[in-house]
Amino acid sequence: MKDRTNYFAYPYLVWIVIFIVFPSVLVFLYSVTSKESGSLTTFNFTLDNFEKFFDPLYLNILWDSIFLAAISTAICLLMGYPAAYIISKAHFSRRNILLFLCILPMWMNMLLRTYAWMTILGNNGILNNLFELLGLPRVTMLYTRGATVMGMVYNFLPFMILPIYTALSKMDTGLLEAADDLGANKYAVFRKIILPLSMPGVISGIIMVFMPAVSTFIIPQLLGGNKSMMIGNLVEKMFILNGDWNFGSAISIVMMVIILISMSIMNRFDVDKEGGARLW
User: Fold this and answer.
1) What distance in Å separates the CA atoms of residue 61 and residue 231, rounded to the nearest whole number?
2) Can you state the angle between helices 245-266 and 195-215, rounded to 10 degrees?
3) Structural domains in the chain?
């Protein structure tokens, strides 16, 4: 029976090979071949594409991408943890409503959600018209780095809330009651019990927000304009506008390495047998 069950895994294995392994290998081959070779069949291996990436111009774009993604992830964590905690402590009937409101924006396409923020932040947008009614001067909010961060926080905040909520909702309430009986105050309970036990959800949320944030291109293109070019925009430019698939593939490989390094760093917070995480 066990051998028959393994057969059901074969379609997923085929799917992974076709849509994950093969494209990744293809991108790697493009990254280590020259554009002048004409095709991958010639296999003129070169590292010029990676050397080109270390130009200060491209390194600044990479740094800006990591910086903005880190800022967005930090803001999502500061906003998402209290929201997840409130949802986990709410009554069961209200909890479902709050979760529904949390995931409701995700039902709409991200491109449409980003266009909506253009209407809100524009010079003739909703906020500036409200400022004018209140007698306040208009503020330039669109096509700024702040608008890019705001767009990423809005789009990726649910990916921070949901894993933290899952970790908090599965927490053994008996531990909290025992700590209260032993005289621990609310700060000690949070620092010694709630925070360590919720760290797996926090780590998952950081990974789920940072990974799409550092590689996004729609949000900085629409909300940041030319002032907030990120690494995703650079890859899009190389593939679509310049037709330089080799250099674009090299940038993609570098981003894959950065994401893998980030995930390995987060995995240092080993999960213990009680479902929590060591903070040291």
Assistant:
1) 6
2) 170
3) 63-266 (1.10.3720.10)
- Indicate the burial class of 256 (C-beta count within 10 angstroms; 0-12, 13-18, 19 or more): middle
Q: What is the DSSP string of 116-142?
A: HHHHHHSTTSHHHHHHHHTTPPP---S
Task: Say if residues 79 and 157 touch (Cβ distance below 8 Å).
Answer: yes
Structure tokens at 81: 């943890």
Reported pTM: 0.86
Q: Exposed, middle or buried by CB within 10 Å (0-12, 13-18, 19+), for 95? A: middle
Bridge partner list, 277: 271
Is-contact 102 158, C-beta < 8 A? yes
CA pair distance 64, 50, nearest whole angstrom: 19
Token pair of 145, please?
């780095």
C-alpha dihedral (116, 118, 120, 123), degrees to nearest 10: -160
Evaluate the CA torsion angle 102, 107, 110, 116 in order and state its sign: negative
Per-residue pLDDT of the chain (280 residues; tens, 9 = 90+): 455 667 777 888 889 889 889 999 999 999 998 866 555 555 678 888 999 999 998 999 999 999 999 999 999 999 999 999 999 988 888 888 999 999 888 888 888 999 999 999 988 888 999 998 988 898 888 898 999 999 999 999 999 999 999 999 988 878 877 877 777 888 888 888 888 999 999 999 999 999 999 989 899 999 988 667 889 899 988 988 888 889 999 999 998 898 888 888 877 764 544 445 544 3
157-167 in b/e form (b: 16+ CB < 10 A) is: bbbbbbbbbbb
Q: Strand ranges (DSSP E) for 90-247? A: none
| Residue labelled with tokens 């396409």 | 109
